């Protein structure tokens, strides 16, 4: 049922509110609205001789915030690895130069109180984040704000309020909760929460998911629309909140929730099963991740490796690029945790929609490009910024002895580019050998196939790399000339465009003719409608968000490879995407009797 239909079916006393469902589960309970005052950072001039004292007051607040976080971390059970890594990242922020040193500098330069100086430092950081397009990275500012709010609270001498007053079940509503607030909810009678701020990838949402606490975020004006004592039903999957629900509505929603859970339990069985077709064809199902913190989810879904580690996310955290040593430690952890499975680390893929605007220095080329998707991005950026590239490759090669590393080069569009990148890898390898630093005997080097020229030249490339990884997110954009981030042309962004399907086929054929494996790590890999077609086209490995692996594995385990091949042959003959969809609408119900798994 769509949200609109749901609204139309609601009795007149009820009201449907919509936010973003970030942690599944349906709960009905009374609301407690927490209207926490935003601490205003008043300005005052320090009397002469008080600067040192003010700096001490600020550093004491930072230290106290660190102690609070450390003690919360110690109280936590070991099964919440996500939450632990989030607290760790907040502890690191308490040492961040942009927060600590900058605040102290403002106190000293302007002779002002710590609250005001911290607010200034925070607004400078916010300005930088505002210039970033990537929604995931944008949301990281929320973490900085949560950490700063904790310090503001300590500067103001504020005590922690309990989140729930007594033992009755409640749903908490607030402007925002920090990940640490969410952890504190675990101990009480809180059955779910609603916030006005936040998004799917916020750390608060991640913690809610790992606690299994239903949550809706981004529900604008929630603290005004809802009042303490109101009865609501919260649906953490759809993001719907029903105010004053009828008893029948509560029952209906709870029944839906029960069905959802039964489906999830059924899928759970597939976590432990091999990913193979009925006739025994094995296909590797691996994971796409952006941060070390996601490894717990990867292990939870028993992924057979990392098919895509988007290494650029490590470059977005601080004012400076990560050091070789920091990168080395990250890659080493990745490899050690996943061994003996392969870990595919894609080298820095910035530019396009992942705009780096704060380093190294304010170079002219970092000005907004007219056409960033066609500009200095990905491998072009790395070849332009050789020192940065070399430092990443050194970190990778040094870590390579701790597991099974595959290096993946993004957006390769010409053989010369590939050769230059491989030459850098060889040079760095020779440098390490000269310094007697051990490197794994063989490290596979592959390339993303995500621009049409790479598809057309796939036979040439296949002779020069160890594997192909098809990046359909970009391939669709470049093949169809559709900006993947532009809402006005989003309807034209079509994975089932026959041109895209033929390009995938051509790449697979060229890869196999050159005896190299071909994986696919765009969003299509985890889409239940696309995956059967991709498997029929001969893809050897699908890499996707770890949580969708059981669903795709289930599709695979119900199919025979010859049937999938026939399906792929049929869609390759279609003249347009509508025909492809028609073929799938006919074929998929025979392959998979339960329609609810199809999307
Ligand atoms: C792709 O382009 O399909 C891909 C996996 O890379 P990204 O989404 O990071 O550009
Ligand atoms: Mg890409």
What does this structure look like?
- By secondary structure, the chain is α/β, with parallel strands linked by helices.
- The chain has 3 domains: 11-33 and 161-259, Phosphohistidine domain (Glucose Oxidase, domain 1, 3-Layer(bba) Sandwich); 48-155, Orthogonal Bundle (Enzyme I, Chain A, domain 2), CATH 1.10.274; 269-597, TIM Barrel (Alpha-Beta Barrel), CATH 3.20.20.
- It contains 23 helices and 16 strands.
- The chain has helices spanning 3-9, 51-75, 81-93, 100-110, 114-130, 135-155, 179-185, 203-211, 222-225, 247-271, 295-300, 324-338, 379-384, 386-399, 415-434, 452-456, 458-462, 472-480, 498-513, 530-536, 549-557, 561-572, 577-591, and strands at residues 15-18, 20-23, 26-34, 170-174, 190-195, 215-217, 231-235, 240-243, 284-289, 306-310, 342-346, 404-409, 444-449, 467-470, 518-520, 541-544.
- The chain has an 8-stranded mixed β-sheet. An 8-stranded parallel β-barrel has the order 9-10-11-12-13-14-15-16, surrounded by 5 helices.
- Strand 10, helix 12 and strand 11 (342-346) form a beta-alpha-beta unit.
- Helix 2 (51-75) runs antiparallel to helix 4 (100-110), helix 5 (114-130) packs antiparallel against helix 6 (135-155) and helix 10 packs across helix 21.
- The chain starts with a helix and ends in an 8-residue tail after the last helix.
- The site of magnesium ion has 4 residues, from helix 18.
